[in-house]
Amino acid sequence: MSFLSYSKDFQGIGDIFLRDPVRYLPFVQLLDSVMSRESELSKTQKEMMALYSSRLNGCHYCVRSHSSVLTNLKTEDELVRSLANNSTDLLDDKLRAAFKFANKLTLKPKTISEIDIDAMRSAGWSDQGIEETICVVSTFAFLNRIIDGFGIMGSDDHIQQVGALIAQKGYQPLVNMIQKKASDSLKEA
């Protein structure tokens, strides 16, 4: 189901990006940078945070997609289910502090204060790790709203394919596809 007349057959976010690749290319490049760049948060931890933030935002498509990514990354099923159900109980203390910050940044962003940053530092996060957390949460706030605004749910097959692809190759194949389509669009213009 999709709300817009031209997106009735869209299965996921890639379809949205491909419809207007020039518009979305910078975002897709940001998504790849945020989720793929080596940092204090591992790629799996970033996917966990994407799942959790998407759950907080109520984005069913992204909860399913990132659950699939994590399953394909061999993350424990119980942990994936826990995060998909808005629980951080299975995380260690350091990661739980980052998810507590992610929760507040997602649900009450204007209430973030230096106290929240200090709590992250006290849990062992560097300022760069805090920035990574901010970037993941912010990226998925945008992505979740795009998907939900279009009304895209995605089939189970699509979700499984996306999860396997991202787990194996990251976000670069999506960037390459959008770059090519954007380049082709600009040549035709």
Give the helices and strands, then pairings.
Elements: H1 13-19, H2 21-36, H3 43-57, H4 60-72, H5 77-84, H6 93-107, H7 114-122, H8 127-150, H9 156-169, H10 172-188
Helix pairs in contact: 1-2, 2-8, 2-10, 3-4, 3-6, 3-8, 4-5, 4-9, 6-7, 6-8
Query: What CATH first level of the domain at 40-170 would be assigned?
Result: Mainly Alpha
Name the structural class. Answer: mainly alpha
Overall mean confidence score, pLDDT: 96
Report helical residue fraction.
Answer: over 70%
Strand content: under 5%
Q: Cα distance, first to last residue?
A: 31 Å
Question: In words, what does this structure look like?
Answer:
It is a single chain. The protein is 73% helix and 0% strand. It is globular. With 189 residues, the chain is mainly α. The protein has helices at residues 13-19, 21-36, 43-57, 60-72, 77-84, 93-107, 114-122, 127-150, 156-169, 172-188. The model has no long low-confidence stretch (mean pLDDT 96). The two termini are 31 Å apart. The relative contact order is 0.21.
Give me a quick take on this structure.
The chain is mostly helical. It has helices at residues 13-19, 21-36, 43-57, 60-72, 77-84, 93-107, 114-122, 127-150, 156-169, 172-188.
List key phrases describing it.
10 helices; AhpD-like; mainly alpha; 189 residues
